[in-house]
Amino acid sequence: MLENAKRWVNPINTSNKAKKIRRSMMAGLATFAVAILLFAQIVLSADEAKMPAQESLYARSAALIDGDTGRLLYGKEEDVILPMASTTKIMTCILVLEMMEPEEICTASAYAASQPQVHLGVQKGWSFRCEDLLYSLMLESHNDTAVILAEAAAGSVEGFATWMNKKAKEIGLSQTHFVTPNGLDNEAHYTTARELALLLRYCIRTSPKSKEFLKITRTAQYEFTDTTGKYSFSVYNHNAFLQMMEGALSGKTGFTGTAGYCYVGALQREDKTLIVALLACGWPNNKTYKWSDTRKLMNYGLEQFKKLNLLQIEPDEAELAPIEVRDGQGGQIGETVYLKPVVRNYAGEESILAPLSSEVTLKYEIADRLYAPVKSGDYIGKIRYMLGEETLAERCVVAGETIGKIDYPWCLGQVLRLLWIE
Q: What is the C-alpha separation between 67 and 234, in angstroms, rounded?
């Protein structure tokens, strides 16, 4: 085990110059590889921005969602339960960020040190700052690091899994279940493409630690030591998508023999935030399939959807005509009484991504007539903002004034008024 560790750790006082040169060469080769990939993908075919045919995607399961609202924009078996491999670590990362402080010390157990590759190569008893391990977790996807963090946060892997599943429930993920913090194969460890995308949305948008999550996952290279300063480590970001498309925000790769290649990534360009999740996207030697599918779905979202601001869509005044109030007290006996409806609070998405050819319509569900008594503010209907058959938002319609019911005292008063006038 110690020999294995030595492949990963560098005593600070030996051969630093040679190792720095080697690291520089590795970084240069990685940059060159990314440049070749970008060059090969510069030209988009005319059809690529159109809705991708399901058979054109390599992934068995895929989802494209609006990162601002969570709405599904495209799906291919998006609700099929599948293993997620190391994309699991986005949950591990965000949960540790929310549960621990950056300077807290995390110590490796024998169980953590026994984790299979890819690993940092720690030994039992080695200690690290929590923040440093998060870079190891997300840039290099180290399996031992995931266990160290889980045990530090919750006391055990099993305890941490309980917190992972609790968080999944809070986010609204009903078809996701966690057993491990690193995503190694387990029949009870699974998700769906749609829910994996929603999980990344939580990490980059709604979590109180979203800024910290983005900082870590967007870092190209990071160096740290153990708490003794005896061993130094360099970790490199393996998320090639960050250099692949303008506006790439974050993401996480994954692979196991059962799960195949998996990926979840986010992009922000102009007024759009898009998230793609892919499960079972090929097996060796098809490591690049996930990049092809990701780029295809991202371009579809960029080219075929527009931002619609629902708050700028005002109700039609003709649909808000005065409503007759039966048995209502008016100006005189026999007068037909009308009430003006008033549009009140708005509930729902303020803006959405919608297909270029689509338009939001308003569906008015307001009472044709009312019966006295009616109080100002009483609910009398609603306006639904519709995209096809989907309800995006609603506005409440209420009575704009109070109208009493005709009764004996009111009738007597009207008669006396008429007699007085005469």
A: 32
Q: What are phi and psi of 274, to 5 degrees?
A: -120, 145
Measure CA of the first residue to CA of the last residue in the chain; give whole Å.
Answer: 111
Q: Which of 81-90, 96-105, 166-175, 345-354 has the lowest mean pLDDT?
A: 345-354
CA neighbor of 392 nearest in space, from 68, 170, 75, 49: 68
What's the whole-model pTM score?
0.82
Model confidence pLDDT, tens digit, residues 165-186: 999 999 999 999 999 999 999 9
Q: Residues near 229 by Cβ (< 8 Å), separated by ≥ 6? A: 12
Q: CA torsion, points 68, 73, 77, 83, in degrees to nearest 10?
A: -20
CA distances from 42 to 36, 288, 292 (A): 10, 15, 12
Q: Tokens 């530090």 label which residue? A: 152
Q: pLDDT, tens digit, for every residue of 247-304?
A: 999 999 999 999 999 999 999 998 999 999 999 999 999 999 999 999 999 999 999 9
Is residue 92 within 8 A of residue 164, CB to CB? The reply is yes
Specify which residues 250 forms β-bridges with.
266
Q: What is the arithmetic mean of pLDDT over 368-396?
A: 94
> What sign for the dihedral angle of Cα 85, 88, 89, 90?
positive
How many Cα atoms sit within 13 Å of 317 on the Cβ side? Answer: 0
Contact 137, 148 (CB under 8 A): no
Calculate the dihedral angle through the C-alpha atoms of 90, 93, 96, 101, rounding to the nearest 10 degrees. Answer: -150
| Distance of alpha carbon 195 from the chain centroid | 8
